[in-house]
UniProtKB/TrEMBL annotation:
Native source species: Hymenobacter metallilatus
Official protein name in the record: Uncharacterized protein
Amino acid sequence: MDFSPTDIHVESARIQRQIEEYLGLGPGNLLFEFRQLDGQTRLDLITVNPRHQQSFLFRYETGYDKLDALRKMLTYVQRFRDEESSYTIQWRTRGDKELQTSYFRAHNVYEALDKLYYGRDLTTITVFSVVLNPSS
C-alpha cells in the first residue's frame, strides 16, 4: 500500500497519539526521536518527567521506515512491555541535593541503567540504588 507524504504524516501522528494514550502520557512528556542508522530508521522513545524535567530512554525500535518503527513501538507498548521486569532507581544529579526516584521496565539491570543514562555523561548522575521490583 502506497502512502502519500500527507498520509504518512497523518498515520505517523495517529500512531504517536495511540502510544501516548496507551502509556497515559500527554504531549511534551513523550518525545519521538527518529534517525537513520545503517539504512534503517531508529525510533528512540524518550520520556520526560514533569516533576524534575529529566528525560530517559523508554525504548528504541528500528524499522525500514518511520511508520514501521512506530508500528513496532505501538506493538511493544500494547503487548510486550509486561514481559520485562520493573526496576526502581534512586539517583541524584551532580550539584542537586534532592534524591530522585525513577521507574524503568527492562530485561536486566544493565538495560535499566542504560535507560537512565541515555544521552548523558556518566559523571552527571550518581546512582544510590537499583531495585528489582516484585512482579505481581
